[in-house]
Amino acid sequence: MYGISLSYSQPLLRPLKLIAGVLCLSVLVACARPDPALTMSGPYDPNEATNRKFHRFNKALDRNLVRPAGKGYVDILPDDIETAVGRFAFNLSIPSAVVNNILQGNMKGAIQDTSRFVVNSTIGLGGLFDPATELNMPAGTDADFGQTLYVWGVPEGPYIELPILGPATHRRAVGKVVDIFTNPITYVLEKPLNYISTATALAARLGERGRYSNTVDQILYESADGYAQAQSLYYQNRRFKLGSKSNDAYIDPYDDLASDPYEALNDE
């Protein structure tokens, strides 16, 4: 029978290996501090040639798989069901945000996220509905480990385009990996229920890709340089989310789309 499991059968070495991996990756990111002189005129992108190759791969994947799947998703599913899937996926991501708020010392955010998770998981039937918003509870913080590293003072490092996941910096790339393995939902639910979070998140991203298809297409396929456009929008949105005080941190017209033009493929 599938359900909640509090079993301690998992090897103790797993969390130790994870902690060691996080520390090693964090050190690597910290060592990748860019020379300020190199970033005065634009993003720090020393591996642009390789990044552009991955960008072409991601565009091909989007054109042949993600884009048509996203359009089919929004065309087939009723709006109410699509919205419910998105809510459910976000609700399952909240425990990870709680962990990151605690790591950042943001106890207010951790309490707010925990309260929202409890209300929506019970009254809201696992997050399919959003009674927390109807009760005027604060919105979720959407904290991630990349943000945690930022709070800890780790520099963002060079720009990188990840296969499938899209734009990131070295700091954010580390955060993506850690977030995958540190969501408590993954360890509380038995298999295969522990994969629900990933599956619903992917479904929600397909929905976003379908809903914002015209805007994403303009960025990737209709701009003079889709790579540079995606990179610029990524930096604007990410630095705005982090509350950066730099001149690069401003709200761009695509902010309502999501956190970046590849949001249909990842979470940044």
From TrEMBL:
<dbReference type="InterPro" id="IPR007428">
    <property type="entry name" value="MlaA"/>
</dbReference>
<dbReference type="Pfam" id="PF04333">
    <property type="entry name" value="MlaA"/>
</dbReference>
<dbReference type="GO" id="GO:0120010">
    <property type="term" value="P:intermembrane phospholipid transfer"/>
</dbReference>
<keyword id="KW-0732">Signal</keyword>
<protein>
    <submittedName>
        <fullName>Hopanoid-associated MlaC-like outer-membrane-phospholipid-binding lipoprotein</fullName>
    </submittedName>
</protein>
<keyword id="KW-0449">Lipoprotein</keyword>
<dbReference type="GO" id="GO:0016020">
    <property type="term" value="C:membrane"/>
</dbReference>
